[in-house]
């Protein structure tokens, strides 16, 4: 099904524009909130996922957060310079770099929910429980469709 046509397309009502605008608004809110931790929203994502063990290598983190490897390297450099994580060669495969949070990084990871959840909840304050569930379902469907296309 084609949802857009030349006749009905309005750039400011396109899915690309609306998702980008929503992302930018959330990023600005989150950057302001985590500033007290001396990190950015993107750095928060790295710290959070690393603390959860979801991605423990630069490549895995890049794939998981949809960040190119060059930007990931620069962000890891900054986090390492701040003493929040360490990088070391894998014992099983020297080509692989393992990421590990320092105790300072772990402390920041522990503070993230107290700072991030109010930001999310402020943005979602006008959503009912059912609307929030539907938003997650639809975004999941949108993302899953993209993931399937990447694999084929």
TrEMBL record:
Keywords on record: DNA-binding, Transcription, Transcription regulation
SUPFAM superfamilies: Winged helix' DNA-binding domain (SSF46785)
Cited InterPro entries: HTH_MarR-typ, WH-like_DNA-bd_sf, WH_DNA-bd_sf
Coiled coil regions, renumbered to chain: none
UniProt keyword GTP-binding present: no
Pfam families, per database record: MarR
Span of domain HTH marR-type: 12-144
UniProt entry tagged with the keyword Transcription: yes
PANTHER family cross-referenced by the UniProt entry: TRANSCRIPTIONAL REGULATOR, MARR, TRANSCRIPTIONAL REPRESSOR OF EMRAB OPERON
Name by which UniProt lists this protein: MarR family winged helix-turn-helix transcriptional regulator
Organism, as annotated: Dyella halodurans
């Amino acid at each position: 099904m084609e949802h857009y046509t030349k006749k009905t397309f309005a750039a400011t009502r396109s899915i690309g524009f609306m998702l980008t605008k929503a992302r930018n608004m959330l990023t600005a809110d989150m950057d302001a909130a985590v500033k007290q931790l001396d990190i950015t929203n993107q750095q928060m994502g790295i710290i959070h996922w690393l603390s959860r063990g979801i991605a423990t290598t630069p490549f895995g983190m890049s794939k998981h957060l949809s960040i190119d490897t060059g930007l990931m390297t620069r962000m890891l450099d900054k986090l390492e310079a701040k003493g929040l994580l360490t990088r070391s060669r894998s014992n099983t495969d020297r080509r692989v770099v393992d990421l590990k949070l320092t105790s300072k990084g772990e402390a920041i990871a522990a503070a993230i929910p107290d700072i991030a959840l109010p930001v999310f909840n402020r943005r979602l304050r006008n959503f009912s429980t059912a609307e929030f569930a539907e938003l997650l379902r639809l975004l999941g469907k949108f993302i899953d469709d993209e993931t399937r296309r990447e694999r084929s």
